[in-house]
Amino acid sequence: LPCAPLAVLGRDVQVPLASGEKVGYAALDYAASSPALQRVWDDVAAYAPYYGSVHRGAGYLSQLSTDLFEQSRRTVAEFLDLREGDQVVFTRATTDSLNLLAGAVPAGTRVFAFETEHHASLLPWAHAGLEVRYLAAPRSRAEAVAALDAALAEAPEGPKLLCVTGASNVTGELWPVAALTETAHRHGARVVLDAAQLAPHHRVSVRESGVDWIAFSGHKLYAPFGAGVLAGRSDWLDAAEPYLAGGGATRTVARETDGSVAVQWHTGPARHEAGSPNVIGAYAIASACRALTEAGFEALEAREQRLIDRLTAGLAEIPQVKVLNLFGPGSARVGVLSFVVQDWNSSHFSAALSAEYGIGVRDGLFCAHPLVRTLLGDDTPAADSACGAPDASLPGERSLNAIRVSFGAGTPDEHVERFLTA
Ligand code: PMP
Questions:
Q1: Ligand 1 centroid to 315 CA: how many Å?
Q2: Which residues of the chain have pLDDT under 70?
Q3: Which intervals hold domain Aminotransferase class V (predicted)?
Q4: Per-residue model confidence (pLDDT) at position 179
Q5: N or C: where does the chain have the smaller number of CB atoms within 10 Å of the terminal CB?
Q6: Which residue ranges make up each domain of the chain?
Q7: C-alpha 359, offset from chain centre
Q8: Which residues line ligand 1 (CB under 6 A)?
Q9: DSSP letter assigned to residue 204
């Protein structure tokens, strides 16, 4: 399965080192945002001169844009292997998709989420006023399935929803999505899959995994910022209040004789896409879906696995490095890995990778504070502020944050080798 790295933007960017030399930037922070594929850029550049308003213009370019926008929806549906009757809603990103769904689930729905989730999949449910049962961090995949089974068995009647990640944004570990979904469905619960870290690395099939909804972000799937997807079953989405009130979501709006305004909302994706949509963003996501499908996930996964094996073997030779795994050493992961280095402050370490080697990684708590604290064996809330803000851990003391290295389809072997050398 020969597969060269896919061409991405920024691959020729030179960055200054502390020494004054310049070196090619090694982007090893794909888990935060991946560089866009050159192919996506080319597609968007070819289309940009022609874009016009979507669903609101009679002119040729408006019709063209409307066609391309709707074609992008179909491309995403194919990419995700959706079922008959499923819908694709274009959103701003995963965070937006999950907040949309949180507002759309029927009142009284009880939500289940492992405390190890990214904040985007952990927090929207309670924020929307739903009751949430947080499940403790499992230390194996089997334990995750058993914990969900037990929690659902004792849950009262009524609608239930599990929100689970496909691949952790901290450890990169794969979650047992099919087994969790089977367990949830057996108890009458629905499932939403946070595929922000899974979709860029592995083929996902909604049909085969059985999940009810899936969410991902364009900017982690080699497309630019500003667009994401929520896709899946239509019933709860069509029955819910629209995510935003405004033009495009309405079938009719009429002034009533009593002075009020009566609104009939669309069903289907338009219901939750009020306002002028991000047609460039949707088109870019569809372009990335096509490019990944054409490159072939089998080949992409095989190549990425080779890099993961090289990285984990290289790190295992450095006694001061501790790789963070929730499910134990050697557990299957995508190209995302977090670690700490003995006697090093993680923020200083990451800064040194940048200043001395031109390597861009991330340090912090990665918007998954409970998970990182569990992995570091620390139950005391550290006084960090924003998502992933660096904590001050002093040399020789227990780390309060970690370093994350992450890569994907555009990563050349040299970046991983340079990282291990560093
Ligand atoms: N879920 C996971 C697993 C993520 O890694 C991220 C982004 N780091 C999100 C959700 C949120 O994605 P976004 O910031 O694009 O909304």
A1: 26
A2: 1-2, 378-399
A3: 28-419
A4: 98
A5: N
A6: 14-36+297-421, 41-294
A7: 22
A8: 93-95, 118, 120-121, 165, 169, 194, 196-197, 217, 219, 367
A9: -
